[in-house]
Write a structure and sequence with these properties.
The protein is α/β, with parallel strands linked by helices and 511 residues long. It has helices at residues 3-7, 31-46, 49-57, 77-88, 105-113, 135-146, 163-177, 189-205, 209-215, 225-236, 251-254, 257-274, 290-301, 313-321, 329-332, 351-354, 375-383, 424-427, 434-454, 467-478, 490-496; strands at residues 25-26, 68-72, 92-96, 127-129, 156-159, 219-222, 244-246, 282-286, 305-309, 325-326, 338-341, 361-365, 387-393, 396-401, 414-418, 462-463. The protein has 21 helices and 16 strands. 50% of the residues are buried. Bound molecules: nicotinamide-adenine-dinucleotide and adenine. Adenine (ADE) is lined by residues 73-74, 76, 78-79, 261, 426, 431-432, 437.
Length: 511
């Protein structure tokens, strides 16, 4: 088959040509959807002082002129504000969501229409994302955002969880080794989809496509703990292809978004999904890191009785000091009403636990990937006829265990699984509020500007932004609270060994 014919061959079950050349693909570009998205974007900007300040600081200067940014990050209203900040600063942008359930369709519509466009005449950015993608659609979207209309690729990636970075690296690795593993060798459905994509891209574009794409990518900024973890693994095994900035470990990201963002959005999601009273319920939060701490606050704020599980004695001791029981899930699974995984690890809740849970226990995950809950094993029980899967509404499912005897009247019990085990705050609600995302995204914009200016000076390493920029992000957000900082005197600054204008802490300080 010649190149053009292969390009138009549809990808898996999507019905969409592999290299579709579409200007965008979203769920709803109606005038109503655009209006709703643009109105919510206006409201969001009032709560995003960091992004607004960067727009003002660089007005007319276009520090991102020449940047071609491919973004893979939840396509929400807050992300639309990020996208339009990057564009105002001069970048060309293409976007996908980093999760199949996290897109807010009106946010995608607002971003496609743009500030000066409309539903009829979109003038915004190419977005390929909609709520409720299949896995094959998800990876198709990622490919579309990586390829510019002239066939070129991005020179920067803005990633959340590392999927865009992953596909570029995998593509290059298999071009290097010559062989793409057979789809049948995949140990997960998702890996099967990625391998299918790589096979089909090779058939259409040959075995230098990913090298060509990677050769123009100067760097990536990574949003989240799990994505950053993947990057450090690559540095360790010497496979990172371009410099990376770890946005997650800016203090004004992980100690705010991961904690206070989840404090807001976890119970928001559980309530929108189930409407169940949280007060007095027993909730088990697996993992007491940053997201775990926010999740515990979220549930305690609703007067749930919360316990945690941990593997790290320091985090466990932190929980104890707050009067929170530290338990193992195996010991207590029968006693809890709500389970939340926050570990960034895999196989935290298995079907062996689900079998023992209370009738209508709520099970959800707020970590980045869906493998914290063994959904694959649960689906196998559905396929085997041992469990019935009943959709209550999209992203809320009852799984009824037919052979257990501790349900109503000694019959089988059910559990309620939210967002099919994917991150619940974006699957069943709208994620963190704008103010929190403003701090995260101000770091992102600064990381992109730094990479655009200086990527080559970093080498193939992972770097965090300097502390003075972290402090700048915090400073930009204080005004909104009417907070007034005390100014150090010269004498005080000398006494504690810091400059009057900061940075105020050494890199060892843990906040
Ligand atoms: P973290 O490293 O601070 O916390 C994870 C905690 O889980 C650690 O304390 C670790 O010791 C613990 N843990 C690991 N394995 C465990 C196990 N088997 N049992 C019990 N505890 C275990 O990471 P974080 O910043 O809190 O992020 C957690 C996850 O949430 C990541 O996947 C991250 O990418 C994601 N995240 C999601 C959102 C969101 O909006 N949903 C926001 C930020 C981060
Ligand atoms: N991560 C958590 N909440 C988010 C939001 N509202 N937008 C984008 N990414 C997010």
């Amino acid at each position: 088959m010649n190149e053009t014919a292969m390009d138009s061959k549809t990808f898996m079950d999507t019905g969409l040509p592999l290299f579709a050349g579409l200007p965008h693909k979203i769920a709803d570009l109606s005038p109503e959807s655009v209006r709703f998205g643009r109105k919510e974007l206006d409201l969001a900007l009032v709560e995003m002082p960091g992004l607004v300040a960067l727009r003002e600081e660089y007005a007319g200067l276009k520090p991102l002129q020449g940047a071609k940014i491919m973004g893979s990050l939840h396509m929400t209203i807050q992300t639309a504000a990020l996208i339009e900040t990057l564009v105002q600063l001069g970048a060309e942008v293409r976007w996908v969501s980093c999760n199949i359930f996290s897109t807010q369709d009106h946010a995608a519509a607002a971003a496609v229409a743009g500030p000066d466009g409309s539903a009829q005449t979109p003038r915004g950015v190419p977005v390929f994302a909609w709520k409720g993608e299949t896995l094959s659609e998800y990876w198709w979207c990622t490919l579309q955002a990586l390829v510019w209309p002239d066939g070129s690729g991005p020179n920067l990636i803005l990633d959340d969880g590392g999927d865009a970075t992953l596909v570029v690296h995998m593509g290059c690795e298999y071009e290097q080794s010559g062989e793409i593993p057979a789809v049948e060798t995949a140990d997960s459905q998702e890996l099967g989809v990625i391998l299918s994509l790589l096979h089909q891209v090779r058939a259409a574009r040959g075995d230098r496509f990913w090298h060509g794409l990677a050769s123009t990518i100067r760097g990536v900024s990574e949003e989240t703990t799990t994505g950053v973890h993947r990057l450090y693994e690559r540095v360790e095994n010497g496979t990172l292809l371009f410099p990376a900035i770890n946005v997650n470990d800016s203090v004004t990201k992980s100690k705010f978004d991961n904690v206070y963002g989840c404090r807001h959005s976890l119970v928001d999601a559980i309530m929108r999904a189930t409407d169940v009273l949280i007060a007095g319920k027993r909730a088990l939060v697996c993992g007491f890191g940053d997201v775990g701490k926010g999740s515990v606050q979220s549930l305690r704020g609703q007067s749930a009785r919360v316990a945690v599980t941990e593997v790290d004695p320091i985090c466990a001791l932190q929980a104890c000091m707050l009067g929170i029981d530290v338990v193992t899930i195996d010991d207590v699974v029968e006693d809890f009403d709500i389970f939340v995984t926050t570990t960034g690890n895999k196989s935290i809740i298995g079907v062996r636990h689900m079998r023992r849970m209370k009738h209508n226990a709520i099970v959800c995950n707020i970590g980045h990937f869906d493998n914290e809950i063994d959904m694959g094993d649960l689906e196998k029980l559905v396929a085997a006829g041992e469990v019935d899967k009943i959709q209550i509404k999209p992203q809320v499912h009852e799984y009824h265990f037919k052979t257990t005897t501790h349900g109503p009247e000694g019959r089988g019990h059910s559990i309620l699984v939210l967002a099919e085990g994917r991150l619940v705050n974006l699957g069943c609600a709208t994620g963190h509020p704008s103010f929190v995302m403003s701090a995260s995204f101000t770091n992102q914009v600064m990381a992109q500007m730094e990479l655009h200016k200086n990527a080559e000076s970093y080498g193939k390493t992972v770097t965090v932004l300097p502390k003075h920029l972290d402090e700048k992000v915090a400073r930009l957000h204080l005004g909104k609270f009417g907070a007034k900082l005390t100014t150090l005197t010269e004498e005080q600054a000398r006494y504690i060994g810091v400059p009057v204008d900061g940075p105020y802490k050494s890199d060892l300080y843990r906040y």
